[in-house]
Specification:
By secondary structure, this protein is mostly helical. It contains 19 helices and two strands. It folds into three domains: 68 residues, no CATH class; 156 residues, Four Helix Bundle (Hemerythrin (Met), subunit A) (Up-down Bundle); 221 residues.
């Protein structure tokens, strides 16, 4: 009789292990996956273990906790405002978010478990099961995305002529990059026997980058929530010729109006004032000179990698000059040039983003220089440069200009999207160079310096008029 009582007590919700396990499952499926790392009676087990009869009540209780959140997120998205085809769009949006949650949430928990295992190898069956989950989630995510594309965007004119369409295309490019990383892991796992063990280091490093890229995609998706769908933006669409003009290379003049000329031609105290030719010339000069800085850094970084120019390792100091230039010139209506004070200007979101994008390069430039000259020997500090590169790229994806002319604002913003994507590639390829061992790290290291030079070229040929 003692054994049945013990079994009933273990199932009682006041049993401490069960209570701990239920707390881990409150977040729905991701929480449930993480909670299964240890059984009800404290017996360690991995995700490869099959759920038993005792898991059924937990599965039934975890589901309702995920459903209301998913429903609420769908009801505050663009889908809730569509009167025509409302049920279809709500369903597609909910499925899209569910698939994204399964994929990205699974990646995040896989990374947590990778850190927890430290240097112990992975069971191949665990990775194969997660691979099947990811395949189903990605296929569902892509199918729902195609449906939402047809309903929210429609055609190539809206895709390239509106902020919503261009940001969605950028999101698709990042998604394809994540699929490439996932494919590397997929083919590596597929070749394994079920009873094999996988060395954790390379896999963990690739999953780190996948998680970072997935967070960036979610950040961009959140920014899309505040952007009107392309099908609703008819009057202020840019034409394909206008977009192509902004990306047509032209040798920069590297000439700028003086602050006096700018102040005479433009109302710097009115953010809603029409944009003048002097404004555009001022902005072009800022981008072109910044391009010279970044191009020089990329070329010097490539020279350093050859091993024949050790002096080129000082290239990160150019970031300090770039940051000072941006802080001085980015917002002429604000301190130190304009009448608006420093603290007052920070209330403007656009000015605040410019200040951050000017300050970040100087900070991580100093860190990278100290690391490369071995003044700082902590290997973790070398990760500051790639992390901030990836973070700056993510911020640039959501950077918006507050102009009265919506088309002109979009034509400025669309040129920032490729800069952001290449910046993200710079950050995560440098991350892999530092984190991957041997030849794998060297292969990743060949990517970031040319990409840094490419950013410089894109800035150097930036144009508005």
């Amino acid at each position: 009789m003692a054994r049945p009582r013990a079994r009933r007590r273990a199932r009682h919700p006041t049993c401490p292990p069960a209570r701990r396990r239920w707390r881990g499952a409150r977040g729905g499926l991701p929480g449930l996956l993480l909670s299964r790392d240890r059984g009800l009676h404290g017996r360690p087990r991995g995700l490869a273990d099959r759920p038993g009869p005792r898991d059924a009540p937990l599965l039934r209780r975890a589901g309702p906790h995920a459903s209301p959140g998913l429903r609420d997120r769908a009801l505050i998205s663009h889908a809730a405002g569509r009167l025509a085809r409302g049920p279809l769009i709500l369903t597609l949006d909910a499925v899209h978010q569910l698939a994204a949650g399964l994929w990205v949430g699974g990646l995040a928990h896989l990374l947590v478990l990778a850190w927890a295992r430290a240097s112990r190898p992975w069971p191949a069956e665990t990775l194969q099961r997660f691979s099947r989950l990811a395949q189903g989630a990605v296929a569902t995510l892509a199918a729902a995305a195609i449906g939402l594309w047809l309903l929210y965007i429609g055609g190539s004119g809206a895709a390239l002529g509106t902020a919503y369409g261009a940001m969605t295309l950028t999101k698709g490019v990042l998604f394809l990059g994540l699929l490439g990383l996932g494919a590397l892991n997929f083919f590596a796992v597929r070749r394994l026997r079920r009873d094999a063990e996988v060395p954790p280091l390379t896999l963990r490093r690739l999953v780190e980058v996948e998680v970072g890229g997935a967070v960036t995609v979610l950040f961009l998706a959140a920014a899309l929530g505040s952007t009107p769908p392309a099908v609703d933006q008819i009057a202020d669409r840019a034409t394909l010729a206008e977009v192509a003009f902004r990306f047509t290379p032209r040798w920069p003049t590297l000439s700028t109006p003086t602050f006096t000329e700018l102040a005479q031609a433009s109302d710097l105290t009115n953010r809603e004032a029409p944009r003048t030719t002097q404004d555009s010339l001022w902005s072009e000069y800022n981008h072109n000179v910044s391009g010279l800085f970044v191009l020089a850094m990329g070329l010097l970084a490539m020279m350093e990698r050859t091993g024949h120019a050790p002096w080129a390792r000082n290239w990160p100091l150019l970031f300090v000059g770039l940051g000072a230039f941006l802080l001085f010139r980015s917002d002429p209506e604000s301190w130190p040039l304009g009448p608006q004070g420093f603290w007052q200007s920070l209330w403007d979101p656009e000015v605040l983003q410019h200040r951050l994008l000017g300050l970040l390069p100087a900070i991580f430039g100093v860190f990278e220089w100290l690391v490369r000259t071995r003044r700082l020997r902590d290997e973790r500090l070398a990760l500051v440069f790639p992390f901030v590169c990836a973070a700056a790229g993510a911020l640039l994806l959501a950077h918006a200009h507050t102009l009265q002319n919506a088309k002109e604002a979009y034509l400025m913003e669309v040129t920032h999207l490729p800069l952001a994507v290449v910046g993200i590639v710079v950050g995560w390829s440098r991350w892999l160079e530092l984190r991957l061992p041997g030849r794998d790290g060297a292969m990743a290291g060949r990517i970031w310096a040319p990409c840094l030079a490419l950013i410089g070229l894109l800035l150097l040929f930036y144009r508005e008029i």
